[in-house]
Amino acid sequence: MENLFQELLAKARVRTGLSDFGDDDFVGPLTAWIEDLSETHLSERGRKFLTNLAVTDLSRRLQVIDCLKQNPEIEEIPIPPILYITGLERSGTTLLHNLLSLHTKARFLSRWQLMMPTPPPEAETMATDTRAQLMQKSIDALRGTDLEKMHWVDAVDPEECVWGFINCSGLLGQAPGPIMPRWMDWMANADWTDTFSGYRKVIQILTYKNPVPENGFLVLKAPQISRHLQSFADAFPEAHFVFTHRDPYRAITSTCALVEIVDRPFLEDPNYFRANKPIVQTFFDAGADRLNDIAAFAKRSPERSTNIRYEDLVSHPIDVTTKVIDEAGFESDPQLETSISDFLEQQRSGRRASPKKDIHTFGYTPEMVHQNPSFKAYMEYFKVTPEITRQTGT
Prior knowledge:
With 394 residues, the protein is an alpha/beta fold. It has 18 helices and five strands. The protein has one domain: Rossmann fold, CATH 3.40.50.
């Protein structure tokens, strides 16, 4: 294992021509990732892809650290106010992220920016930056797959913050977690202070030459950080949290379906995920824990929290988006209603592939979820009603 660890570091150094990895906050997640590469359920193709993924992440870390060394003033840049969207995966976070990002004073971080943050993007060339086209080529290769129907993000679209973490904790949006058990265990139990500190620096790089508008704000999103809410809140005092609340049965089954789609190409047996009950159980257990944490934070810090029900977001997207802006204390945008209407019309007319009509439930039933004490208490507190017919958000 030590040999592979050093081999990955060496490959990143050769790829970038750089050598300084900074402090050792990446060692824990990278070590766990390397240990999981020996898992027998991974295919050779999957093992190769996941190995290279780590090299790419290490290369980005080298580039970020070098950028900060070359431009020390970046770390003095203040972080602007943040609207931070989180909750369970598949609870409407992506839809709300896109709608809030339409505000004329808002700034979001796209996939290409998070994956290729150096050199710092410049406001004057954002629309023509070749990194966007380079990233889009890799994304377009997945057109027509189930992933396009479940969750699609173009290179220039708002993306989840975990893609911008620089210590091997955000690999592939953390989707490989269920098939990388030691890595997933590290994510569940680690202290995330250093991870979030590193992410602050990425945000500073991305706003260095492309600042938010005057009186503007960042719109960021990551369902994954809901398991580490207080750590994130401490690292980002600028953040106002927006929690999306959906029937946990729908959120969990949809998350299982999405993760299976992402992870299937890496597995020796394509049915491994469905057949492995302990993996599926982790979604249930983790979901209950995370909803307990969300409820506790919302009660503890109501001044930093806005709560949105998925059913309201889907049925009244303009009203809900306006409510979030008002509760966070940002100025209204007279163009926002038109922008949202235009965006949703484009989505319905084909910009987004039609969602799958049916998804596998992985053995879950509504009763199994709704009768669990944690889920039941959550639904009662946030007035979440059972989603009898699955809503798709478009």
